[in-house]
Amino acid sequence: KLPQKVKIVEMGPRDGLQNEKIIVESENKVKFINLLSQCGFQAIETTSFVSKKWVPQMGDASEVYQKIDKVPNVSYPVLVPNVTGLDQALKVDVKEIAVFGAASEAFSQKNINCSISDSLKRFNEVVIKAQQNGIKIRGYVSCVMGCPYEGDINPLKVAEVTQKLFEMGCYEVSLGDTIGVGTPEKTKDLMQALSQFDFQKLAVHFHDTYDRAIPNILVALEHGIQVVDSSVSGLGGCPYAGKPSGNVATETVVNTLNYLGIETGIDKEKLKEASDFICGLLNRQNISINF
Ligand code: HMG
Ligand code: MG
């Protein structure tokens, strides 16, 4: 049974841009986010408070966050890997953060330079301080259906990290198929391994490297998940994920859900405007062209 409504969390400004070689000027990031704010999203992941040396494109996090128009009832979460990042986010009055862990030891090392258990200790410090400041915390688990370095991942490992993130105080955990190797069968196995959790508190974050994100999302929705991360025009990919692999395109998700009679609240015309703008800057083919 499919849900009646799905919340889409737009990833374009963060996951969409973090791996782009062309550095987008801060002012244009602000325009892009302001255009997205008109589309009807309830949440737009805005930027990352990570090391500039590791992810140069996100080096202007404070400036971008400060300059965007914050539309009431839209949240603007940002990625935060440690207390250093949180302190910078606090200075610009961020209201929601996301900590990002992994179900793969090798990916954790490459992505955030520490083991899974060390990352959980760091996140715990972040969460405590964030909660003291009244900030909402989302959690990510990467490599839920496979890792670029380790290959197959045991879904029970995903369940273990998910459990830790909930125990810490994350209000939602987003399941990242970081490199898009998931299949409908693997998605089903993953959902079964997570059956102890409240599916209203889980989200899916699927990259579309092999064009399987949509069938995989549908399996997740059939299991009761109602939150989907996607990126306008399918921009994006993690710099530590090897082969370039964008997020599933927001346009494709909206079209598919509309076709199935599932409400998203997204204005397609406005979405096309945001997509045209960013694709123009990045010299990319705009997938909303036939949208
Ligand atoms: P590190 O080098 O191990 O950290 O990096 P450190 O604590 O040893 O510090 C080294 C230097 O970085 C110091 O500066 C720190 O001050 C600075 P120096 O003394 O050399 O001048 N530093 C920072 N600067 C700014 N912001 C910070 C920060 N922390 C330390 N927060 C660290 C560890 C986590 C910082 C680093 O590995 C990093 O920034 N990694 C970036 C990871 C990243 O952004 N990955 C992409 C996002 S995750 C993703 O895309 C997956 C997802 O989409 C889900 C999915 O698809 O699966 C979420
Ligand atoms: Mg991602």
Automatic annotation (TrEMBL):
Pathway(s) per entry: Metabolic intermediate metabolism; (S)-3-hydroxy-3-methylglutaryl-CoA degradation; acetoacetate from (S)-3-hydroxy-3-methylglutaryl-CoA: step 1/1
Keyword Metal-binding: yes
Catalytic activity, reaction form: (3S)-3-hydroxy-3-methylglutaryl-CoA = acetoacetate + acetyl-CoA
Enzyme Commission number(s): 4.1.3.4
Gene Ontology MF terms in the entry: hydroxymethylglutaryl-CoA lyase activity; metal ion binding
Top-level taxon in the UniProt lineage: Eukaryota
GO BP term, pick one: ketone body biosynthetic process
Record keywords, A-Z: Lyase, Metal-binding
Name of the protein: hydroxymethylglutaryl-CoA lyase
Organism: Paramecium sonneborni
